[in-house]
Amino acid sequence: MSAAERSSLLDAPTIARALERMAREIVELAGGTDRLILIGIQRRGVELADRIGALIRRSHGADVPRGALDITLYRDDLNEIGPRPVIGETRLPRDLDGKIVVIVDDVLFTGRTVRAALDQLADFGRPARIALAVLIDRGGRELPVQADIVGQRVPARSGDRVDVLLQEVDGGDAVELVRSGAP
Asked: What is the mean pLDDT of residues 85-98?
């Protein structure tokens, strides 16, 4: 088997343009900013939600409430993680009832992370609508989940990995495709 191949899919300016477009589409989907809440999935979804929130504030003058979900305890493979999973912060605005919640994540693959996020949100209220915005949709769904707003669609094989690197976490912005050695 040959070594994994890494190739660049998006650079920092392309990511910035995708996020600007996503911010416009989110406001349009929500019919404005009055009832809009952005909730990022830990890890990089939180940073993306913060960036989108800043773009909405700049273009619409509205400070959209934001939150963070750590879906670890809602995963359907929790028993495979081990006896002591690392659990991050879940922080949500006070009231989700009647709001338009947009879940933000970096990569949509199987749909299982989104399912876990929906399960967790149900414990905190009943939004009028829940939408999904992802920077990358790589295909390969195992569950009937689709994003409402997508920055970029990237066809990837099942053994491949799509890495989203962000300045806040990784020291720079990029999206890379890591192809497995198998054809």
From this structure: 83
